[in-house]
Specification:
Elements: H1 7-20, H2 36-39, H3 44-56, E1 64-68, E2 73-77, E3 83-88, E4 91-92, E5 121-124, E6 126-129, E7 135-140, E8 145-149, H4 159-164, E9 172-174, E10 178-180, H5 182-189, E11 199-203, H6 209-213
């Protein structure tokens, strides 16, 4: 896919990005608390990360997303730290918190099943666009991982059914990109992250978020 990014970066990643898209400041003011109903959407660990972000203003007054891989959900926060919405997501088929070095430059045929991970970390997002004119949001451009609307071209993958199921085990299907329902993307992602930078926190699944992000005791 061809993406609307700086030319030097664009030329370095055109072929590989096409394949992989089939991641503390001082306290200023405490963020207003989310409603009880909204807070219930967060797992205990996602709640801990949200509290850490609020306490340290780590989002630097930018809107942010929490992608909870263990729960297979994404949570949308505004710049003040208020929880706006949540949704199930589809994630990389392989369990793991790191991308294989150089994977963003490799053809899809050279990516083994165990390498199809969604990397954990703190990422400053970038709006992008593919060759078909569809907008996406880059999580980590260098490894060709983005957040985008769910794609249903391959019926055998049953992506809509996976999103709708009550379990998280079947939400692992992508090469690393994060898929969300189209309506959710259009309502929450496109109007904000599709137009400006934001912060995306992808929670780890091989260790605690506290140790990974460095806020544990």
């Amino acid at each position: 896919m061809l993406f609307s990014l700086p030319l030097t970066r664009l030329l370095a990643r055109v072929a590989s990005a096409s394949a992989l898209c089939l991641g503390a400041a001082p306290v200023l003011h405490a963020a207003p608390p989310a409603s009880a109903a909204a807070t219930a959407e967060l797992s205990a660990e996602a709640g801990q990360v949200a509290q850490w972000i609020h306490r340290t203003q780590d989002n630097q007054r930018l809107p942010y997303l929490l992608i909870d891989k263990r729960a297979a959900r994404v949570h949308v926060f505004d710049a003040a730290g208020r929880l706006q919405d949540s949704s199930p997501v589809l994630l990389g088929a392989a369990r793991g918190d790191h991308s294989v070095p150089g994977i963003g430059e490799r053809p899809i045929s050279a990516i083994a099943p165990h390498e199809r991970t969604t990397p954990a970390g703190r990422f400053v997002s970038e709006p992008g666009q593919n060759l078909q004119g569809e907008d996406i949001v880059w999580i980590d451009y260098d490894v060709a991982v983005s957040l985008h609307r769910v794609r249903t071209g391959n019926a055998a993958e049953r992506r809509l059914q996976r999103l709708a199921s009550a379990t998280v085990a079947d939400n692992r299907i992508s090469y690393g990109c994060v898929n969300v329902p189209r309506a959710f993307y259009n309502r929450n992602i496109a109007p904000v992250w599709g137009k400006q930078a934001g912060v995306i926190y992808v929670l780890p699944e091989t260790q605690s978020a506290a140790s990974f992000f460095g806020f544990g005791s």
